[in-house]
Amino acid sequence: MYLLLVVGIGVPGLLAEFVLGRRGRQTPIGALRSLIGSRWGTAVGTFNVITTVVMLSFYSVVGGWILRYTLLSPTGAYFAQPQQYFSHASHGLPAVGFHLLFLGIIALIVFFGVSQGIERVSKVMLPAVVVLLGGLAVWTATQPNTAAGYAFYLGFDPDYLAANFFSVLGPAAGQALFTLSLGAGAMLTYASYLDDDASLPRDTVVIAISNTAIGVLAGLVVLPLLISQGITPGQGGPGALFVALATAFGALPGGNVVATVFFFTVLLAAVTSGINLLETPVATLVDNYNASRRVATAAVTLLLAATGSGLALAGPAFRFVSGPVVDVMLTLGLLAFLGIVGWVLREEAAAEFRAGAGRLSGLATPWVVAVGWVLPVVVVFSLTTTVASITGVSLTNTTRAAIAVGVAVACRTAVTRTA
């Protein structure tokens, strides 16, 4: 399901953000305002920036968990009672402290700007993540009793998918949007830095494949390792990664070393994602309000320190924000991007697609048609599923489909009339 959504929604949606970013040459507020030429562009861009702040508010708390486990893995301090340890570490003042430390790390990188900070760090961290995950995947393959884990991870059960398709559609869509940073404007911001002759279709596919490959590599480490130790994936609630893996590492010879390498790898990936999210609100203050990067970084970091600390202290609020709230905000953001590209810009978007695309230029028109007619219906259907799950409302698939078509057509009509 996840891979299907990455290909069907993620790739064309990411391409839409890239087109808007390079065409607008600014952060979300300025880019959308100039492209649309109305206050709605400012409203959508502001919503995107708020989305990145909400995402990073909870993500920096998770980053703090990862940082803590990385530092304590050499001693195996959490091996003996993993559930109790995670319950203590995940919320409360200890979680606040590590959230602030993680936030300070990514803020320091963003402080130095795109070329001196973000690009330099990313060039080291991303290859390191791939190498370390690849090494861990090879090591996992040498461990006993991992065959069942590979069968569980790589197996495909069409009957289960058919029976549960609509129940997993919303969460799977939210996960796909989150891992690709879609709908928040982060990729739009980075696309504003791309050269005019860069192939946007090629870059989009490379990012989607790279992101998916890293996720597959992580799965080749985690699931076989858990099942080889008799641990059922998914047990342990929201801290399943920490609780279940702590149990598995504690049972392995040399588990301290493996745990240290694993959590250090996850930490590198978390820092990379964190700086990607933080750059959007910081660049927005720099571009739209003439703030210096130093002042902008400090202001956004202070805001996130407060919002993240609040979530670190309140478990129910953390779960609500990190789940349904972020899923809905990302889906709405993506729907707005699709509408702007497919309903408002159209030919301009196609021209931007073709710039530097070479032999892929012929896909511009089919892509605009898909973005303007097909994907909005799919995205609204996913949004309807998520909202129904949150509110506890039971809807038949026919009703969801009718709502999706009706909302998509109504939105298109309203936008084209005011554009």
Automatic annotation (TrEMBL):
Keywords attached to this entry: Membrane, Plasmid, Transmembrane, Transmembrane helix, Transport
Pfam assignment, any one: SNF
Coiled-coil boundaries: none
Subcellular location: Membrane
Transmembrane segments: 40-58, 93-112, 124-141, 205-227, 239-271, 291-313, 325-345, 365-390
GO cellular component: membrane
CDD domains named among the record's database cross-references: SLC6sbd_Tyt1-Like
Membrane topology: Multi-pass membrane protein
Main location: membrane
Alphabetized PROSITE patterns for the sequence: NA_NEUROTRAN_SYMP_3
UniProt cross-references to NCBIfam families, sorted A to Z: Na_transp
Name of the protein described by the UniProt record: Sodium-dependent transporter
